[in-house]
Amino acid sequence: MPAPTTDVEPTAPTPDAPTEPAVLLELEQVSKTFPVKIGMRKRSVSAVDGVDLLVREGSTVGIVGESGCGKSTLARLIVGLVPHDDGTIRFAGQALGSKGRRPRSVVEQMQMVFQDPYSALNPKATIGESIAFPLRVQGVPTAEIQERVGTVLTDVGLHPNYATHYPHQLSGGQRQRVNIARALALHPRLVVLDEAVSALDKSIQAQILNLLDDLQEAYGLTYVFISHDLNVVEWSSDEVAVMYLGRVVETCPAEDLYRRPLHPYTQGLLASIPKLDPRERAADAGRIDGEMPSPLDPPSGCRFRTRCPSAHERCAQEAPVLAEVEPGHRVACHLHTGADVPVEAPSLRSTPTPPTTTEGA
Ligand SMILES: Nc1ncnc2c1ncn2[C@@H]1O[C@H](COP(=O)(O)OP(=O)(O)OP(=O)(O)O)[C@@H](O)[C@H]1O
Ligand code: SF4
Ligand SMILES: [Mg+2]
């Protein structure tokens, strides 16, 4: 029997819609409290409280917030240096328990770079020994260790001869390059950088940021980039999460955050950046005043309410949840997520200010 014919033209294949990179790290309602003793009383510090975070493969997520808001604790929870009390941490689709050791494969895939490039290195060990140490612990064969040490030193812009030097023979920028090399030696997928450029001069900062950018592409890395410096985070991050007193209060693409911050705390943080241009100083009116309350005794409801110029009755009674108010833009504030009157978000910045670069590190 002949095949039935049809008048319908075959449809052209539709081009695939661009797909988002896979989620590498996901935090769901992650919390951490530390027990402390004040005088004879036992108290607890709520360092991280119900944090949600999504980090896509190959991207950089910046974490910003004032000193003591929980950035480093969050970093330590992610890499497993301290166990989380509640919530779920998922890495490459695998839920990581808060008890017991993490599987070696996961430990190797997450590395951390700390703020102080000097204290992170053993002063009595050569640079080569410092980089080789974690490789030895992971059972990498000796011949391969030597090769990897040379490769990562070259990749971070240092001659392989630096392997025989000691930390005190290097500048601050060079030492931070070594710390980055040590993190890379294990071929991680995720690198958590906790104030990794904060101790460096501005010009060296810019070089290390450029280096991190290059390495991200060359190694296919994903970064969680923690800093109290909003300029640095703006320059380096795709997405930004703003923390206040242990909670994430706003998260969105970096461009949105700096052009159109929605949370009163973010608006205040951006208004607090010192401005050289007198025409931009008018925005200083929105600066945040006062100190962050103690995490020993956080305010009820919205934790920012004691410093918020828009606080109202509901803010003391009910903690706002982090909710998507625009595509990809999530905010925890009753002004944006409830029946309360939304505030007009000021446009605080017109153009990002890239960090400057001049001399060699
Ligand atoms: N091991 C600990 N024991 C008790 N309290 C702790 C411990 N670690 C952190 N904290 C407290 O948890 C809160 C968050 O600290 P954390 O170091 O995470 O903040 P941070 O945002 O990294 O601050 P900074 O910008 O100064 O580095 C602080 O009040 C801190 O004192
Ligand atoms: S919930 Fe209330 S106190 Fe908190 S940021 Fe919004 S307006 Fe301010
Ligand atoms: Mg810290």
From TrEMBL:
What InterPro entries does its record include?
AAA+_ATPase, ABC_transp_ATP-bind, ABC_transporter-like_ATP-bd, ABC_transporter-like_CS, Oligopep_ABC_C, P-loop_NTPase
Instruction: Specify the ABC transporter domain's residue ranges.
Output: 25-270
Position of the signal peptide: none
SMART domains reported for this sequence: AAA
Segments for region (Disordered): 338-361
Could you list the residue ranges forming a coiled coil in this record? none
Q: What Gene3D superfamilies does the database record attribute to this sequence?
A: P-loop containing nucleotide triphosphate hydrolases
Keywords from the UniProt entry: ATP-binding, Nucleotide-binding, Transport
Family matches, as PROSITE patterns: ABC_TRANSPORTER_1 (PS00211), ABC_TRANSPORTER_2 (PS50893)
In alphabetical order, the GO MF annotations are: ATP binding; ATP hydrolysis activity
Q: Name one GO biological process term.
A: peptide transport
* PANTHER family documented for this protein: D,D-DIPEPTIDE TRANSPORT ATP-BINDING PROTEIN DDPF-RELATED, TRANSPORT ATP-BINDING PROTEIN
Could you say which protein family the record assigns here? Belongs to the ABC transporter superfamily.
The name this protein carries in UniProt is ATP-binding cassette domain-containing protein
Q: Which organism is it from?
A: Actinomarinicola tropica
